[in-house]
UniProtKB/TrEMBL annotation:
Record-annotated WSC domain positions: 142-234, 245-340
Organism: Piliocolobus tephrosceles
Protein name: WSC domain containing 1
Entry-linked InterPro entries: P-loop_NTPase, Sialate-O-sulfotransferase, Sulfotransferase_dom, WSC_carb-bd
Gene3D superfamilies noted in UniProt: P-loop containing nucleotide triphosphate hydrolases (3.40.50.300)
One MF term in the entry's GO annotations: sulfotransferase activity
Recorded family membership: Belongs to the WSCD family.
Annotated keywords: Repeat
Length: 575
């Protein structure tokens, strides 16, 4: 009896020693990793910015006509602008710090703990600065570093294209994206946000206020919270595509008051479409209008809304005859209409929790684009899609129950999920189109098309059998459990965008101007429309699939009528 007991005691002692050894090894390994992280993350002391291949702020402003030479002597111009010039022209000279081993180890560990904590909190608090000295502007970028500008006003400093990238944002990436869209300036904010535009304010802020490094480019400055690191885009990176072409919109009658309808003009002999489009793009106008040798720039307005297109032959005369006629050619420039691009979170939490509900593939993302630009407020999401966030849907990252967004995207159905919302916009699309769109998304992402092998495999029939019933049950559940509904048909939204969108905005209890709605109409496509040739037969449904889907169409049509809504559009009628 004693012998087994002795063996057990010996085993426990060995186990105790083994556990002690493993614990010590674990602690030592963790300490080494933390010290390794400290060597990378802790600042090595102040660094002087390297020689910039740049122009000072004032010089750039003079070059584009935003600031004339008299403004440099104007007492109303902030001295920070001239200070920014000096800081850009001459590097800072500071004494080099002493050896690192002379620093207090305790303070270093305290700083390391703070950085370790902020590493996990940075998603909600914004990226931390690297230390007392800001990262340097990108030395190898093709653009010219202009300076650091404030972006905390009601309107954005750069009002053009917007996109984000939480992991891979670089200065070159932002510059290329803005140059492709014919913008002069590329601005980076908070390490992961890119903004484009053609105009800058006359004054800048101190360079040290832009202190966040780019998420995808260590050591390069990418602004800070409410601060933009702005580069002038001089040329594209090799291999980048240039999208400087203008899109023909049609031939239209001239408005009664040309001076009022067309705020800017250029009269020049032998003016071309490219010349007129470039002139209007630089001034951030979305429309370039040609009438003989006259070039005008404009926005869509109630007096010039681009809905009364004429026969193109009326504008196909020689320039002198066209100038005397009452018609003009209208082209869409590469820049966005900036009257409706500013968006923000709700200043106060919404008292009404609104859903934007649809079956997958029914155009929910496009509807969010329209709502955000019409109301000026971000939309949220029950899910988190990093691709959508990177394309400018900033509410995608916000918690869906924060009530800081104007409405929340959801594909959910079922009583419990529906009754969480006070009201909902129910977006319905033809199930044939919805199924094809969702299958494309699942196989090739938001902008791609499924390959032929996907359509010919067993995957497609299985998808139709399972998802077709979901299309029906989704609508039926929301009709049954929804507290307050607005039913919107995707096809009607495309046909009559402004009236339908006006109804949606009123349902959200937001008042908007007619000019803003026309701006949305001019920017209606957004960034999530599939382009290019489809890689499959446009009618991939078998007779058995059609019988199944048509039965669900009849069921939903009857349910809508029973709840005092108009039935489904005529194109839903079984084929």
């Amino acid at each position: 009896m004693a012998k087994p007991f002795f063996r057990l005691q010996k085993f426990l002692r060995r186990t105790q020693f083994l556990l002690f050894f493993l614990t010590a090894a674990y602690l030592m390994t963790g300490s080494l990793l933390l010290l390794q992280r400290a060597r990378v993350a802790l600042p090595q002391g102040p660094r002087a910015p390297g020689p910039l291949q740049t122009l000072p702020v004032a010089a750039v402003a003079l070059g584009v006509g935003l600031l004339d030479s008299r403004a440099l002597h104007d007492p109303r111009v902030s001295p920070e602008l001239l200070l920014g010039v000096d800081m850009l022209q001459s590097p800072l000279t500071r004494p080099r710090p002493g050896p690192r081993w002379l620093r207090s180890r305790n303070s270093e560990l305290r700083q390391l703990r703070r950085r370790w904590f902020h590493h996990f909190m940075s998603d909600s608090q914004g990226p931390p600065a690297l230390g007392p000295e800001a990262p340097r502007p990108a030395i190898h970028s093709r653009g010219t570093y202009v300076g650091c500008f404030s972006d905390d006003g009601h309107e954005r400093t750069l009002k053009g294209a917007v996109f984000y990238d939480l992991r891979k944002m670089t200065v070159s990436h932002c510059q290329d994206a803005c140059a492709e869209r014919s913008y002069v300036y590329a601005g980076l904010e908070a390490g992961a946000e890119c903004y484009c535009g053609n105009r800058l304010p006359a004054t800048s802020v101190g360079l040290e206020e832009c202190s966040h490094e780019c998420k995808g480019e260590k050591g390069s400055v990418c602004g800070a919270v409410d601060r933009l690191s702005v580069y002038r885009v001089d040329e594209l990176q090799p291999g980048s595509r240039k999208r400087r072409t203008a899109t023909y919109r049609g031939c239209f009658p001239l408005p009664e008051n040309i001076t009022h309808a067309f705020p800017s003009s250029l009269i020049q002999a032998n003016v071309t479409v490219e010349t007129c489009s470039g002139f209007c793009s630089q001034k951030e106008f979305p429309l370039a209008i040609l009438r003989g040798w006259e070039c005008y720039c404009a926005y869509p307005t109630p007096q010039f809304n681009l809905r009364d297109a004429m026969d193109s032959s009326l504008c196909g005369q020689d320039p002198e005859a066209q100038r005397l006629a009452e018609y003009c050619e209208v082209y869409q420039t590469p820049v966005q209409d900036t009257r409706c691009t500013d968006r923000r979170f709700l200043p106060n939490k919404s008292k009404v929790f609104v859903a934007l509900s649809s079956f997958p593939g029914a155009g929910n993302t496009w509807a969010r684009h329209l709502i955000e630009h019409a109301t000026g407020f971000y939309t949220g999401s029950y899910y988190f899609d990093g691709t959508l966030y990177n394309k400018g849907f900033k509410g995608e990252k916000d918690h869906w129950r924060s009530r800081r967004t104007i409405c929340v995207k959801t594909h959910e159905s079922g009583r419990r999920e529906i009754e969480m919302f006070d009201s909902a916009i129910l977006l319905i699309r033809n199930p044939y189109r919805s199924l094809v769109a969702e299958f494309n998304r699942k196989c090739a992402g938001h902008l791609g098309y499924a390959a032929d092998r996907n359509w010919k495999s067993k995957e497609w029939p299985d998808f139709v059998n399972s998802y077709a019933s979901w299309w029906s049950s989704h609508v039926l559940d929301w009709l049954k459990y929804g507290k307050r509904l607005l039913v919107v048909h995707y096809e009607e939204l495309r046909r009559s965008l402004v009236p339908t969108l006006r109804e949606m905005v009123a349902f959200l209890n937001v008042s908007v101007s007619e000019e803003r709605l026309l701006c949305v109409e001019n920017n209606k496509e957004g960034s999530f429309r599939r382009r290019g040739r489809r890689s499959h037969d446009p009618e991939p449904f078998t007779p058995e699939m059609k019988d199944l889907i048509n039965g669900y169409i009849r069921t939903v049509d009857k349910a809508l009528r029973d709840h005092n809504w108009t039935g489904l559009p005529r194109e839903y009628v079984p084929r």
